[in-house]
Amino acid sequence: FFYHIDTTATKRDERQLHPHTARFFIRTCTRILPLHSHTHYTMTSTNDNNNNNVEKTPTTTTNTNINNNNKENKLAPFNPTCTHAQTIALNLLSLQTSDVLFDLGCGDGRFLCKAIQHIPYGLSCVGVEYDEMFVTRAKDAVANLNQELTTKEEDGGGEGRKKRSVIEIRHGDVLNESIISPSSTSSLSLYRDATAIFLYLLPKGLKRVKPLLEKAALERKRQQQEKKKNDDDNDKPLLRIVSYMFSIPGWDPIHVDRSTKGECPVYLYHLT
């Protein structure tokens, strides 16, 4: 099968979810059709409000920078975050104009587009996605949103010379450090620049990205020590992380929001 589900981890976290939501999520994740050559099928919901409407979308990937045979690098199947959960996540992250937001496994880019609608000026966003089809969709969504925002500015709804919030979509493996943390200082780095991170991964995927998050937190702490910030700044979290649906193994969230339809949890972490 194209995706492998960690049944033990999934059942452990299933107890934290509304029973119907948990069963649907697990069933959706496991209903992946066999892989033939380089063509695979991804299950995508056609309606956020009707989870039973699911379509099978064929796609062919040919990017030579990614080893398509390495199925273990896929940390989760595509399952879009509902609009309500996106709003909750953005509120929990408390984004400001100086923040750098990373979405690891950004899918079609809908969360990042929501973020720059929420913070239209000064926010920098980076989305990393493994599947070429969704990378294309994400880039198209960003281009369309930018055109929409430009039109609003031209119609008099702009903010003068303020810097527009930007989104960069990267095609690659989240576990590849050259993708998430390029050596060039002109590119935003998860380790060097990230102040906020959004995750919607399976428990197995969260376990694999956890060391990356810890490394990012250590780098932010080192930067803080070098700059010798004021006491007030030291009270602020070095890195804010939101994980939708599943908790990060071994970490205690500072807040859990269950106000979404089906009581799907949204976990907030502060790495200090």
Description:
The radius of gyration is 19 Å and the shape is globular. By secondary structure, the protein is an alpha/beta fold. It is built from eight helices and nine strands. The longest helix is centred in the middle third of the chain and has 26 residues. A seven-stranded mixed sheet has the order 5-4-3-6-7-9-8, with helices on both faces. The protein has a two-stranded antiparallel ribbon with strand order 1-2.
Widest sheet: strand ordering = 5-4-3-6-7-9-8
CATH superfamily of the largest domain: Vaccinia Virus protein VP39
Number of domains: 2
- The count of strands amounts to 9
Percent of sequence in beta strands: 15-25%
Overall shape: it is: globular
CATH architecture of the largest domain: 3-Layer(aba) Sandwich
Overall mean confidence score, pLDDT = 76
| Helix coverage percent | 25-40%
> How is the biggest beta sheet arranged?
7 strands, mixed
